Request: fold
Amino acid sequence: MDFMRRNARWIALAAVLAITAPFLAQGLNALFAVDTFLVAVILLLVIVIAVVVLARSQNDEE
Reply:
């Protein structure tokens, strides 16, 4: 439970970005003419990696 309290902001950010990822994928699909599913998967991977890196850097500062 302590983990949830410490990282509540990052969890909320990940949830918001996960919700908006399909819409971003459709927009990027229209721009670059690539498969929407592929773009969605790439966006979700980037979001997860960014949240993990930011959460670890925040924990290192404490």
Q: What stands out?
A: DSSP finds three helices and no strands in the chain. The radius of gyration is 14 Å.
